[in-house]
User: Fold this.
Amino acid sequence: MTKKGLIWIIIVWGLITLINYYYVSFFFLGFIWLGMILTLLLLTITQIIKAIDERKGLSKLRIAKILVFTGLLLLTFFSQIVNIAIEKVDWLIFENKRMEIVQQVKNKTLNPNVSWNEWVCELPFEFPIVSNGGNDIGISRNDKNDGTTITFWVFRNFFDSPSTHFIYTDDKQKVRELERKIKEAPENNWKIKENWYRTYGY
Assistant:
């Protein structure tokens, strides 16, 4: 394998990671993750064995291969760290687009519009992906205090499994609920900015 081939492996790994983050259903993520771990582990072990055999004339390319495969193996194994990094970049890139959607919900241009759920709104575009798992958002309106809560999925689980969200809310009742959630589990829940929260749960 040449240096160019090594660069392509890094690029392909990055693409697979992004595809997993934005598109792949949680049903398949475990299998993909396991497959990547086993492949990278095998490649790393192979390169280490070759390095031992070539120890008297070890090349820079061999060292680079060991470092790259070991690094990708660790990044894949601790994929949560990588996902958090992607999440933070995603927030910065699409913050303005999400704010546009919030305004459209408040103006009632966007409303729940699917037959299978009373609070989900399927956005009228596929790109950019501002809510993972289908570009759907959740819309809740509190008629008692005129508050609005909009849920964007960061990682969307189904059935009774917890999901990760970006949540906008100006509903004081919902704010109290989210602030309580942050106190109980600050490692998974935090305030991003005024009216915006990152949460993990149901």
About this structure: The CA atoms of residues 32 and 130 lie 23 Å apart.
